[in-house]
Structure formats: structure tokens, C-alpha cells
Design goal:
Blueprint (H helix, E strand, L loop, with lengths): L1 H11 L7 H5 L6 E5 L2 E4 H17 L7 H24 L6 H14 L4 H10 L4 H21 L8 H11 L8 E10 L6 H19 L4 H8 L10 E6 L5 H7 L7 E7 L2 E11 L5 E12 L7 H16 L4 H8 L3 H4 L4 E5 L6 H8 L10 E3 L2 E14 L1 H32 L2 E3 L4
Antiparallel strand pairs: 1-2, 1-11, 3-4, 3-6, 5-6, 7-8, 7-10, 9-10
């Protein structure tokens, strides 16, 4: 149970649910920071510090100096509170059904039933209620990111073509790369002098790394990247999914080499090539499907969207034409004009919640209404086939890489804007 739940805990790092015991302890609290109309309590700060420490330990990362740990923990809390505040302003919520499904899915992935999950949480000193609220927050943050960042990102054919042209410069037919990454961010609207200072700081870090400094330790301590607490480890990335920002550098690198500083809108990057490997052709099972989407927003509640789609489901299963109802009702404007037709869909091209339902259907079967991050769907499977998707996968991977790069930069800019516009005051200890 302990080993199995340790795996679960690594997953839960991403939903900020570690060490709830500290949050629930009977500490004599004090306010350590003011964040707009909210406050950060000492108990919250200690809990976040412990979460970071546990994550570092799980990844065998070096211990962070106490002052750096406190600074990073406080900034993580501030950013989270600002995003949750913005989500509340936009009316972004999580209904009970979605929350329960998410908990059930996490339990299932770890071979646990609900009582087993609750027991495992208790063994780690965490209550189910605290776990639920942490998960609720993470789902809200995901929906906020989708709405305010991801939904605004566009990838053009020309960008994909240019990306692939650069990717083809990679030597030796390399198809996947193991990378570590450090991001030294620049302030929003930074002056040329401020940018020069950040660049000089980045160059100093690169010099230390080339002289033998531990990359994981430096990433943990200094990086603003999403994987900082994992020692900057990006894991294995297929060549088609490489951030285009790094492609040119990686074409000239060998194992163990470090590249940088590489400038982007969010700051200066340092990349280390840990390893690389070759690849094969991609034969995939494609699905031809169509769907109807009803979105949730300020005007349409989750219950209202689900109820509306349930009525459409009843009409379809009663014999009415799917395509006609999709054209008249679906809020996926791209597919609606085609009767909801999504064309031939390759694995990984749609959100996991959608693909899970779609892949479970027999040919011509219509799903019951289900929820994704975009709203409520009905999907019908029309056909399936094996497809040599080597070229398709290359282009899909390129789009994914470009989208991820733009998303990272856009998210950094979005968070930076919230931070710069917020009232934040650090309250010194008496």
C-alpha cells in the first residue's frame, strides 16, 4: 500500500494536495502576506513549504536553502490565490459530479476503490475533505487556463511547415530527446536594462553549469519553469513535440551538452540534452466520429448544459437525425456546420475525457452526455480504420509543440499580469 500510494502522491503534487495535515493542525496562526482582499496564513506557508520539500525528496532533488524555499512557497501561494480569485470573478466552478468522477478516476489509476483511497489518504495524514478541496481548486485552475490562455492560441499551417523544416535539421534521425530546462523569467514590460541583467544572470548560471554545477539543483533553486521542482526534468519528448525555440540548438548538441541563453517572451532558457533515441513509423487506429457540444459559461450553468444535451440525446436515440440536430444546436462552430463531423481522429488529438468515451463505443453507437473541459458532449462513432500516420503524427506533434510553447509563454504572461496588477504586501513577523 505504501509503495502504491507513493505513486499516487506524485500524481497529486500536480493538484497541490500533499501534506494536508499541516493545514489542519492547530497552529497559532498569523498573517504573513496580504493578497488583494485575501490573506496568506503561516499555516498555509508551512504546508506549501512541506509540499515542496516532499516533491524534492520524491524526485531525489537537492534540499533547497530555507530562505529560497520560503520565497518560492510564498510566491506559489500568491499566484494560486490570484488565479482562484480571477476564476471566481469569471464564474468558473466545479460541480459535485465532475469532482467525484475526477476522484474516482485517480483512484482507479492507482488500483484503489474509494474506501481504499480514503484509507491511503488517512495513512498519509490527509483527510478526504481536504483532498477534495485541493482537487477542486486544481480543476478550477485548469479551466481558467483553458479559457483565458489555451482557447486564445492559434497555430497556422505556415508555422507548422516552418517548425518541421527546422526539425528536419536534427542529426542522425533522432526521434526523441530527454531534456532538462531552466527558465529565468523577465518582468512584464521589462526595460532593456532589466532584460540585460536577466541575461547576464542566465549566462552566469550557464558558466556555473559548464564548470560542473548540478543542473537539477540549479533548476530547483532558480528556474521559473513548470518543472523546476522536478529539477527541470522535461522527460522524454518526441522530436515533433520539441519546443521550436530549442530545435536549432538541439540540432548541434550531443549528450550532456548545455545550450543557452535562449530568449523568449517569458525570459531566458537553458537546456541540457541528457539523451536521445531513434524512431519508427506510426500505425494508429483512427476513428471517424461526430459530436454535439453545449458549452458552460456565465449564462449557461453546468446543470442547464447537461439537461439540454440530455434532451438532444433522447431525440437522437428516438430516431431524429444526428447531423441536423448538431447543425442546429452544437456550439462547436467548426464541426456544427458539418453536422458535428470531426473527420478521422487520431489518438491523442482530442482531450482525454472525450477520447475515453469515444474509444469505448461500438460503431454507430451514441454516447450518453458526458463532461470535458469544454462543456457537455454527445459523440457518435461512424467508422474505424488502421492508418499509417507517420506524416500526420509529425504534423500533429508539431502543432502540439507549437501550442505548448505558446501556452507556456502565454500562461507566464497571464500570471505575470495578474501578479503585477495585484496588491501584495508581505507582513513581517513581530
Amino acid at each position: 500500500m505504501v509503495t502504491r500510494f507513493k505513486i499516487l502522491l506524485i500524481l497529486l503534487v500536480f493538484i497541490n494536495s500533499a501534506n494536508a495535515a499541516l493545514r489542519e493542525s492547530q497552529l497559532l496562526d498569523r498573517v504573513v502576506a496580504l493578497v488583494n482582499e485575501d490573506v496568506v496564513l503561516l499555516s498555509e506557508l508551512l504546508a506549501e513549504e512541506k509540499t515542496i520539500e516532499d516533491l524534492l525528496a520524491a524526485n531525489n532533488a537537492p534540499v533547497m536553502p530555507a530562505d529560497e524555499l520560503r520565497k518560492q512557497a510564498l510566491e506559489r501561494i500568491i499566484i494560486r490565490k490570484l488565479q482562484l480569485e480571477e476564476a471566481a470573478k469569471l464564474g468558473i466552478t466545479v460541480d459535485e459530479e465532475t469532482l467525484l468522477k475526477s476522484i474516482g478516476s485517480i483512484a482507479a489509476r492507482n488500483n484503489l476503490d474509494m474506501p481504499g483511497l480514503e484509507k491511503a489518504l488517512a495513512e498519509e495524514g490527509m483527510s478526504m475533505q481536504t483532498y477534495r478541496e485541493d482537487l477542486r481548486e486544481q480543476i478550477i485552475l485548469g479551466r481558467l487556463k483553458n479559457r483565458e490562455v489555451l482557447a486564445r492560441i492559434q497555430i497556422t499551417k505556415a508555422e507548422v511547415d516552418n517548425y518541421l523544416a527546422n526539425a528536419e535539421q536534427l542529426p542522425g534521425g533522432r526521434s526523441a530527446f530527454r531534456l532538462r530546462h531552466i527558465l529565468i523569467s523577465t518582468p512584464e514590460g521589462a526595460s532593456s536594462e532589466e532584460i540585460s541583467k536577466v541575461q547576464a544572470r542566465t549566462e552566469n548560471l550557464i558558466e556555473q553549469l559548464r564548470q560542473g554545477a548540478d543542473f537539477a539543483a540549479m533548476a530547483t533553486r532558480y528556474s521559473s519553469g513548470a518543472q523546476a521542482l522536478q529539477g527541470g526534468d522535461l522527460g522524454w519528448i518526441e522530436s515533433g513535440k520539441l519546443p521550436s525555440l530549442f530545435t536549432a540548438e538541439l540540432a548541434l548538441m550531443e549528450r550532456g551538452e548545455i545550450a543557452g541563453p535562449i530568449q523568449s517572451a517569458s525570459g531566458f532558457h537553458i537546456v541540457k540534452l541528457e539523451d536521445y533515441r531513434g524512431g519508427d513509423r506510426n500505425i494508429v487506429k483512427q476513428t471517424h466520429a461526430r459530436h454535439i457540444l453545449i458549452r458552460t459559461d456565465e449564462l449557461t450553468s453546468d446543470d442547464a448544459a447537461r439537461s439540454r444535451l440530455q434532451q438532444l440525446y433522447i431525440r437522437i436515440t428516438g430516431g431524429e437525425d444526428f447531423a441536423a440536430l448538431a447543425r442546429a444546436n452544437s456550439q462547436d462552430t467548426v464541426s456544427a456546420i458539418k453536422g458535428g463531423d470531426l473527420g478521422w481522429v487520431s489518438p491523442g488529438s482530442l482531450v482525454p475525457e472525450f477520447e475515453e468515451v469515444m474509444n469505448s463505443l461500438e460503431i454507430n453507437a451514441v454516447s450518453k452526455p458526458f463532461r470535458s473541459e469544454f462543456g457537455w458532449h454527445i459523440v457518435q462513432v461512424l467508422e474505424r480504420k488502421d492508418h499509417d500516420a507517420t506524416e500526420d503524427v509529425r504534423r500533429d506533434n508539431a502543432r502540439t509543440a507549437l501550442r505548448n510553447q505558446k501556452a507556456e509563454e502565454a500562461q507566464a504572461l497571464y500570471v505575470r499580469k495578474l501578479r503585477d496588477q495585484a496588491y501584495v504586501e508581505i507582513v513581517p513577523a513581530e
